[in-house]
Design brief:
It contains nine helices and two strands; from the N terminus they run H-H-H-E-E-H-H-H-H-H-H. The chain is mainly alpha-helical.
Length: 222
């Protein structure tokens, strides 16, 4: 692994292990840490500029997320994702999105509505220009709706699932789903009307369409 210049700063607002976790997540997403790559404590200490303790705590969290494989006294390495793992994680994430829409949309305050509508417009723009930022927008909308539910358990589960889906999506180019723009007008109407059931129905229909899209692409490649 090339060892970049350390960018970790001690922050009074975050535990050091959380800062390390964010840096390692970003490194996995941008390819600095690649699938199958073994993690070496000494290299990570030099790169991150911290002791082994917060690094090991961050790695334990990455194991929980499914992003790192570990076997005691043998190896610690970045996981190698499969299409089946991606499909499973995406299915669960879309289920959480449906729950977030059903329970969260009716609870949106004015600021929450404004934020949701802004993300929807970003989705429209990025889908029309076929910008990969579509995936980031979808994640942002999911997180916003789940937070609006005020359900701590759902938020905890979503927080651990999102990094896993983002990691698994690195091997699934077909996850870039430009046709999401077809769902945006009814979703916008549901948000402005605080209609959780209508918003959930939009997400459910989108999930079915995305599943058909993935299966068609994979059948064509087989």
């Amino acid at each position: 692994m090339p060892v970049p210049k350390s960018t970790v700063e001690n922050s009074p607002r975050k535990l050091l292990r959380d800062v390390v976790l964010e840096k390692m997540l970003a490194a996995i997403q941008d390819g600095t840490l690649q699938a199958g790559e073994r993690l070496n404590d000494d290299e990570l200490v030099r790169w991150l500029g911290v002791s082994r303790t917060p690094i090991r705590e961050a790695i334990a969290k990455l194991v929980d997320y499914g992003l790192v494989d570990m076997e005691a006294n043998r190896y610690t390495r970045i996981a190698t994702p499969s299409a089946k793992q991606f499909d499973d994680a995406l299915q669960v994430m879309l289920g959480f999105a449906e729950l977030g829409a059903r329970w969260g949309v009716p609870k949106l305050d004015a600021a929450g509505e404004k934020a949701a509508l802004g993300i929807i417009e970003d989705l429209r723009s990025h889908a029309e220009s076929e910008d990969r930022a579509v995936n980031r927008d979808l994640t942002a909308l999911l997180v916003l709706l789940v937070r609006a539910t005020d359900n701590a358990l759902l938020e905890t589960f979503t927080g651990s699932l999102v990094p896993r889906v983002q990691f698994l999506a690195l091997t699934a180019e077909e996850f870039i789903f430009w046709d999401v723009k077809q769902a945006l007008d009814p979703l916008r109407a549901a948000v402005t009307g605080r209609d959780g059931e209508a918003a959930a129905a939009v997400i459910r229909a989108l999930a079915r369409t995305l599943d058909d899209h993935l299966q068609t692409l994979r059948a064509a490649r087989a």
